[in-house]
Amino acid sequence: MATIEYVYSAHSGYAYLGSAEFMRICADNTVTLIHKPILLSPVIDAQRAPSFRGRTQQHVDYFFGREIERWAEFRNVPIINYRPSQHDADYSLASGMILALGETGPQTDAMAHGLLEAHWRDDMDLSDLSGLKALATSLGHDADALLAKAGSEEMQSRLQANTRWAQEKNVFGSPTYIVDGDPFYGQDHLELVKRALHTPFKAPGWSNPPVK
Protein backbone atom coordinates (compact mmCIF):
# COMPACT_ATOMS: atom_id res chain seq x y z
CA MET A 1 0.00 0.00 0.00
CA ALA A 2 1.37 3.37 -1.04
CA THR A 3 1.68 6.18 1.49
CA ILE A 4 1.17 9.82 0.49
CA GLU A 5 2.25 12.61 2.81
CA TYR A 6 0.06 15.53 1.79
CA VAL A 7 1.82 18.81 2.59
CA TYR A 8 -0.28 21.95 2.18
CA SER A 9 -1.50 25.13 3.81
CA ALA A 10 -5.17 25.53 4.69
CA HIS A 11 -5.37 28.70 2.56
CA SER A 12 -3.54 27.48 -0.56
CA GLY A 13 -5.24 28.21 -3.87
CA TYR A 14 -3.35 25.52 -5.73
CA ALA A 15 -4.10 22.97 -3.01
CA TYR A 16 -7.77 23.82 -3.50
CA LEU A 17 -7.57 23.44 -7.28
CA GLY A 18 -6.20 19.93 -6.87
CA SER A 19 -8.12 18.89 -3.77
CA ALA A 20 -11.14 17.15 -5.29
CA GLU A 21 -9.06 15.38 -7.93
CA PHE A 22 -6.49 14.33 -5.35
CA MET A 23 -9.19 12.88 -3.11
CA ARG A 24 -10.60 10.97 -6.10
CA ILE A 25 -7.17 9.55 -6.87
CA CYS A 26 -6.76 8.41 -3.27
CA ALA A 27 -10.25 6.88 -3.22
CA ASP A 28 -9.65 4.98 -6.44
CA ASN A 29 -6.35 3.52 -5.25
CA THR A 30 -5.08 1.72 -2.18
CA VAL A 31 -3.48 4.64 -0.38
CA THR A 32 -2.60 5.67 3.15
CA LEU A 33 -3.10 9.45 3.08
CA ILE A 34 -1.30 11.39 5.81
CA HIS A 35 -2.21 15.06 6.20
CA LYS A 36 0.63 17.47 6.92
CA PRO A 37 -0.91 20.97 7.15
CA ILE A 38 1.77 23.64 7.45
CA LEU A 39 2.32 27.38 7.76
CA LEU A 40 3.39 28.25 4.24
CA SER A 41 5.47 31.42 4.61
CA PRO A 42 8.25 29.88 6.75
CA VAL A 43 8.54 26.99 4.28
CA ILE A 44 8.83 29.34 1.30
CA ASP A 45 11.29 31.53 3.21
CA ALA A 46 13.50 28.49 3.90
CA GLN A 47 13.81 28.02 0.12
CA ARG A 48 14.73 31.69 -0.29
CA ALA A 49 11.81 32.14 -2.68
CA PRO A 50 10.24 35.60 -2.94
CA SER A 51 7.16 36.29 -0.86
CA PHE A 52 3.87 37.31 -2.49
CA ARG A 53 4.67 40.95 -1.82
CA GLY A 54 8.18 40.49 -3.20
CA ARG A 55 7.04 39.40 -6.67
CA THR A 56 6.46 41.63 -9.66
CA GLN A 57 2.89 42.58 -10.48
CA GLN A 58 3.23 40.72 -13.77
CA HIS A 59 4.15 37.51 -11.95
CA VAL A 60 1.32 37.95 -9.45
CA ASP A 61 -1.20 38.57 -12.26
CA TYR A 62 -0.08 35.44 -14.09
CA PHE A 63 0.63 32.94 -11.29
CA PHE A 64 -2.13 34.04 -8.90
CA GLY A 65 -4.59 35.06 -11.59
CA ARG A 66 -4.50 33.58 -15.06
CA GLU A 67 -3.02 30.24 -14.01
CA ILE A 68 -5.62 29.79 -11.28
CA GLU A 69 -8.42 30.67 -13.72
CA ARG A 70 -7.24 28.14 -16.29
CA TRP A 71 -6.75 25.32 -13.79
CA ALA A 72 -10.14 26.00 -12.21
CA GLU A 73 -11.75 25.68 -15.64
CA PHE A 74 -9.72 22.57 -16.50
CA ARG A 75 -10.55 20.80 -13.21
CA ASN A 76 -14.13 22.15 -13.15
CA VAL A 77 -13.60 23.72 -9.73
CA PRO A 78 -15.80 26.67 -8.62
CA ILE A 79 -13.65 29.60 -7.56
CA ILE A 80 -13.90 33.34 -6.93
CA ASN A 81 -12.31 35.56 -9.57
CA TYR A 82 -10.00 37.44 -7.20
CA ARG A 83 -7.50 36.75 -4.45
CA PRO A 84 -9.50 36.04 -1.25
CA SER A 85 -10.07 39.30 0.59
CA GLN A 86 -8.63 37.92 3.87
CA HIS A 87 -5.95 35.71 2.33
CA ASP A 88 -3.27 37.11 4.65
CA ALA A 89 -5.29 36.46 7.83
CA ASP A 90 -4.03 34.01 10.45
CA TYR A 91 -5.07 30.46 9.47
CA SER A 92 -3.40 28.62 12.35
CA LEU A 93 -6.72 27.86 14.07
CA ALA A 94 -8.16 26.52 10.81
CA SER A 95 -5.08 24.33 10.43
CA GLY A 96 -5.60 23.14 14.00
CA MET A 97 -9.08 21.97 13.04
CA ILE A 98 -7.54 19.59 10.53
CA LEU A 99 -4.95 18.36 13.00
CA ALA A 100 -7.55 17.88 15.74
CA LEU A 101 -9.29 15.28 13.58
CA GLY A 102 -6.15 13.19 13.16
CA GLU A 103 -3.57 12.86 10.44
CA THR A 104 -5.64 10.42 8.37
CA GLY A 105 -9.25 9.44 7.75
CA PRO A 106 -12.39 10.68 5.97
CA GLN A 107 -13.20 13.36 8.55
CA THR A 108 -9.75 14.88 8.10
CA ASP A 109 -10.09 14.69 4.31
CA ALA A 110 -13.45 16.46 4.44
CA MET A 111 -12.23 19.20 6.77
CA ALA A 112 -9.14 19.91 4.65
CA HIS A 113 -11.22 20.19 1.49
CA GLY A 114 -13.95 22.15 3.26
CA LEU A 115 -11.58 24.84 4.49
CA LEU A 116 -9.90 25.24 1.11
CA GLU A 117 -13.27 25.39 -0.64
CA ALA A 118 -14.74 27.89 1.80
CA HIS A 119 -11.74 30.19 1.35
CA TRP A 120 -11.48 30.03 -2.44
CA ARG A 121 -15.11 29.52 -3.44
CA ASP A 122 -16.87 31.57 -0.77
CA ASP A 123 -14.16 34.07 0.22
CA MET A 124 -14.32 32.89 3.84
CA ASP A 125 -11.92 34.44 6.32
CA LEU A 126 -10.09 31.47 7.85
CA SER A 127 -9.48 33.44 11.04
CA ASP A 128 -13.20 34.15 11.54
CA LEU A 129 -14.48 32.14 14.48
CA SER A 130 -18.12 32.21 13.41
CA GLY A 131 -17.25 30.97 9.94
CA LEU A 132 -15.10 28.16 11.31
CA LYS A 133 -17.89 27.14 13.70
CA ALA A 134 -20.42 27.07 10.87
CA LEU A 135 -18.13 24.92 8.73
CA ALA A 136 -17.43 22.50 11.59
CA THR A 137 -21.15 22.17 12.29
CA SER A 138 -21.94 21.57 8.61
CA LEU A 139 -19.47 18.68 8.64
CA GLY A 140 -21.17 17.11 11.64
CA HIS A 141 -18.81 18.14 14.43
CA ASP A 142 -19.33 19.66 17.87
CA ALA A 143 -17.94 23.02 16.77
CA ASP A 144 -17.06 24.38 20.21
CA ALA A 145 -15.24 21.20 21.24
CA LEU A 146 -13.38 20.96 17.94
CA LEU A 147 -12.28 24.59 18.01
CA ALA A 148 -11.13 24.30 21.60
CA LYS A 149 -8.95 21.34 20.62
CA ALA A 150 -7.79 23.08 17.43
CA GLY A 151 -6.50 26.05 19.40
CA SER A 152 -4.84 23.97 22.07
CA GLU A 153 -1.10 24.06 22.66
CA GLU A 154 -0.85 20.44 21.48
CA MET A 155 -2.41 21.09 18.06
CA GLN A 156 -0.59 24.37 17.50
CA SER A 157 2.69 22.69 18.44
CA ARG A 158 1.96 20.00 15.87
CA LEU A 159 1.39 22.68 13.25
CA GLN A 160 4.77 24.22 14.07
CA ALA A 161 6.38 20.75 14.01
CA ASN A 162 4.86 20.04 10.57
CA THR A 163 6.23 23.34 9.33
CA ARG A 164 9.75 22.55 10.59
CA TRP A 165 9.48 19.06 9.10
CA ALA A 166 8.56 20.54 5.71
CA GLN A 167 11.54 22.89 5.90
CA GLU A 168 13.85 19.98 6.68
CA LYS A 169 12.36 17.99 3.76
CA ASN A 170 13.06 20.96 1.44
CA VAL A 171 9.39 21.27 0.49
CA PHE A 172 9.02 24.10 -2.03
CA GLY A 173 5.40 25.04 -1.45
CA SER A 174 1.76 23.99 -1.30
CA PRO A 175 0.59 21.48 -2.27
CA THR A 176 3.33 18.86 -2.21
CA TYR A 177 2.47 15.17 -2.44
CA ILE A 178 5.17 12.80 -1.20
CA VAL A 179 4.51 9.31 -2.55
CA ASP A 180 6.55 6.74 -0.62
CA GLY A 181 9.28 9.34 -0.19
CA ASP A 182 9.16 10.73 -3.75
CA PRO A 183 7.95 14.38 -3.73
CA PHE A 184 5.69 15.93 -6.37
CA TYR A 185 5.28 19.70 -6.04
CA GLY A 186 2.14 21.32 -7.38
CA GLN A 187 -1.35 20.10 -8.24
CA ASP A 188 -0.34 20.12 -11.89
CA HIS A 189 1.63 16.95 -11.05
CA LEU A 190 -1.40 14.94 -9.93
CA GLU A 191 -1.29 12.83 -13.07
CA LEU A 192 2.27 11.85 -12.13
CA VAL A 193 1.14 11.15 -8.56
CA LYS A 194 -1.53 8.81 -9.93
CA ARG A 195 1.02 7.00 -12.09
CA ALA A 196 3.47 6.68 -9.17
CA LEU A 197 0.88 4.83 -7.08
CA HIS A 198 1.05 1.79 -9.36
CA THR A 199 4.30 2.36 -11.27
CA PRO A 200 6.96 4.17 -9.22
CA PHE A 201 9.37 6.35 -11.13
CA LYS A 202 13.04 5.46 -11.43
CA ALA A 203 15.39 6.71 -8.73
CA PRO A 204 16.79 10.20 -9.39
CA GLY A 205 19.71 10.16 -11.82
CA TRP A 206 20.02 13.85 -12.66
CA SER A 207 22.76 15.86 -11.00
CA ASN A 208 23.27 19.61 -10.94
CA PRO A 209 26.18 21.63 -9.53
CA PRO A 210 25.35 23.24 -6.18
CA VAL A 211 23.81 26.70 -6.27
CA LYS A 212 26.25 29.30 -4.95
UniProtKB/TrEMBL annotation:
Keyword Isomerase annotated: yes
Catalysis performed (reactions): 2-hydroxychromene-2-carboxylate = (3E)-4-(2-hydroxyphenyl)-2-oxobut-3-enoate
Key words, A-Z: Isomerase
Keyword field contains Nucleotide-binding: no
E.C. number(s) listed in UniProt: 5.99.1.4
Gene3D superfamilies assigned: Glutaredoxin
Residues covered by the DSBA-like thioredoxin domain: 3-197
InterPro entries: DSBA-like_thioredoxin_dom, GST_Kappa/NadH, HCCAis_GSTk, Thioredoxin-like_sf
Family assignment from sequence similarity: Belongs to the GST superfamily. NadH family.
Name this protein carries in UniProt: 2-hydroxychromene-2-carboxylate isomerase
Organism name: Roseibium porphyridii
